[in-house]
Design brief:
single chain, alpha/beta, Rossmann fold, six-stranded mixed sheet, four-stranded parallel sheet
Length: about 325
């Protein structure tokens, strides 16, 4: 394994003075609908609006000071951009982020507000990754990958570390999968603290690259997905994250966009929590019976982010 529980614990020490230890919420109505005892880890209330600050800051913290001072570069569809921008601001170093031409305005505005320079680069992960790596080579900037990096994964794993510290008798943990950094880090932390816990990842039906890859036994590339959950539109799981997930994740399940929207509405109505579509993916799997093994058990759910733009929110609230 490229990382272990000790790596996540070291990341937690670095992050302790920087990130919010986000609260864990309960809802009897959501419990009743899911048929499980749900513990909602609200990373939608994290700094920069999502868990991404954890991996970004941990990566910057592990760079040599001289390397970090030259500046950092990354590529992202939105939330990682904000995480890197905030981490760079905290370290007082410049950051350049390559983003898709389709980036949500709310995520672009927040990234720029933290002081990062935004560069538009195509529409796919490959477009912006290629542009970022070329710029890094030319300018001498340190690269902060969105997921396929051990330090980034270790930082993201602190979500599960905190959750299990607060609720040590969890029997299942469920999180969304994009490139796999959050899922891989949480799987390492969860297995390290509770070896018998069941680890479940969730994707949308259209963005099912990890679901396909685990069944094929190798990384599968899919066409650009059209899911509402913009944070999990990866075309292929990361090389490193896939190896961790193949070893530690028990299953990956799929939810529809309609189910994601329903979960968002329920979180807002019943728990008063505003999440973006990706942030509702894990809960949707429980509410719509996609994880039968979780029924009647204590389940930790990662609400990964809350950076939803007002137009999307308005459309969702008008439904139903």
């Amino acid at each position: 394994m490229i990382l272990d529980l000790a790596d996540v614990q070291q990341a937690a020490l670095r992050l302790e003075p920087v990130v919010h230890r986000t609260p864990v919420f309960r809802s009897r109505q959501l419990d009743a609908r899911a048929g499980s005892e749900l513990y909602l880890k609200a990373e939608c209330l994290q700094r920069a609006g999502a868990f991404k600050i954890r991996g970004a800051y941990n990566k910057l913290a592990t760079l040599e000071p001289r390397e970090r001072a030259r500046g950092v570069v990354s590529y992202s569809s939105g939330n990682h951009a904000q995480g890197v921008a905030l981490a760079a601001q905290l370290f007082g170093v410049p950051a350049t982020i390559f983003v898709p031409e389709t980036i949500l305005p709310v995520k672009r505005a927040a990234t720029e507000a933290y002081g990062a320079r935004i560069v538009l680069a195509g529409t796919t992960t490959e477009d912006r990754e290629k542009a970022a790596l070329e710029a890094a080579g030319k300018e001498g900037w340190a690269v902060v990958p969105p997921y396929d990096d051990p330090d980034v994964m270790a930082g993201q794993g602190t979500v599960a570390l905190e959750l299990l510290q607060e609720v040590p008798d969890l029997e299942v943990i469920v999180a969304p999968i994009g490139g796999g950094g959050l899922m891989a880090g949480c799987a390492v932390a969860a297995r390290g603290l509770a070896p018998r816990i069941r680890v479940v990842g969730v994707e949308s039906e259209d963005a099912n690259d990890t679901w396909q890859s685990l069944r094929a036994g190798h990384r599968v590339r899919i066409p650009p997905p059209q899911t509402i959950a913009d944070g999990i539109r990866a075309l292929q799981p990361g090389e490193l994250t896939f190896e961790v997930m193949r070893e530690l994740v028990d299953e990956v399940v799929l939810v529809s966009d309609a189910e994601i929207v329903a979960a968002m509405r329920l979180l807002l109505e019943r728990a008063k929590l505003l999440v973006e579509p990706t942030g509702a993916v894990a809960l949707a799997a429980l509410l719509f019976g996609r994880v039968p093994a979780a029924r009647g058990r204590r389940v930790g759910i990662v609400l990964s982010g809350g950076n939803v733009d007002l137009a999307t929110l308005g459309t969702i609230l008008r439904q139903g």
